[in-house]
Amino acid sequence: MEQKHEEPRWKLRFQSFQQSLIDFKQALQQPEYSVLERAGLIQLFEVSFELSWKVLKDYLEFLGHQAKSPRETIRTAFEFGIIEDVDAWLDALETRNTFTHTYGGDMITVSEQKIKKESAPLLLTLEKYLIAVQDDT
Question: Of 10, 44, 100, 107, which sits most exposed with the smallest number of CB within 10 A?
């Protein structure tokens, strides 16, 4: 009987994360945004960030480490050298949480720049890291 080879959960989640990054990367290329485009950028960031911490959680579990919340997952990933700047990641988590509960005004314009300059590089660096380790697992 042939044994079925299943991909580790983190690799399946990583595929979803990479799919979310396709549109997010495209949105990041815009020099300026209309109201609807800005809303789209924020939504794409929220989805990509959500998948980023979940793929981190799955990868940590694959390595034998447990983390339950996004904050705990980020701290544990930092402890094991998967991510480098824990404070920037926690700030990105706070940005994501703010969008989930607040909308409007100057916060949206400021957050657009924060997403582009601070949060997006974290997600793109994580993608590169996971691409590098995926063939080793």
Answer: 100
